[in-house]
Amino acid sequence: MQPDHATEPLTILMMVAHPDDIDFGNGGSVATWTGEGHRVVYCLITDGDAGGFDEDVSRTDMATIRRDEQRAAGAILGVEEFHFLGWPDGRLYVTHELRRDLARVIRQVRPDRVVTQSPTRNLRSMYGSHPDHTAAGEAVMCAVYPDARNPFAHPELLAEEGLDAHTVSEVWISHMGEGADLYVDTTDAFERKVEALRAHKSQTAHMDDLRGRMWGWGRSQAKSAEFGPERTAEGYIVLDTR
């Protein structure tokens, strides 16, 4: 349960199901990492076109809105690079084609670390077990191993696109409960996380106490990390995938 102490600049690739998933689960970590000089890249598998609350907004328009909101939120946290894959929101399954698309991004970005969602259902958390989230986590894990590192997997990526195989050194799985392997102290980045979430207006404008909710989540993880009072944290299960 030690904090993150990377000593050299890393390339960190965040791979999740929906716009706003990163900013809810990892926004404080992202702001901390970019502040330390790490390169952070976002990969959004869907455009979140099934989200929102305004029935007068078409699903095509919602996809555009959510991409724009994600770019604005990422900019607040210091992120400038985005990959939008455009898979259908609410209909995400682990397929060969999805694994190929994720492996393509990994080979393009060539990250040291991939951060993703849990591939397993948490029976005590409906939010954490959104089927798109678990599908994203499993597909990302498949793309990390074996797909992205195997030059004979998805051979068109090399033959047609010139994308050489790449081995990701570590995968961090977002973990919001007790028992994480590692916690990032996000206290100094907390307000930026909230600001980034407010940029997702189509998803958060109706929330009466967004800041309070995020403070509660962050405090619970800081307590698990034994960071002391008035601190916030985000937890991860860390896998060596070299």
Automatic annotation (TrEMBL):
GO terms for biological process: glycoside metabolic process. One of its GO terms (molecular function) is hydrolase activity, acting on carbon-nitrogen (but not peptide) bonds, in linear amides. It comes from the Bacteria. It holds the Pfam family PIG-L. Keywords: Zinc. This is LmbE family N-acetylglucosaminyl deacetylase. It comes from Actinomycetospora succinea. The lineage of its organism: Bacteria, Bacillati, Actinomycetota, Actinomycetes, Pseudonocardiales.
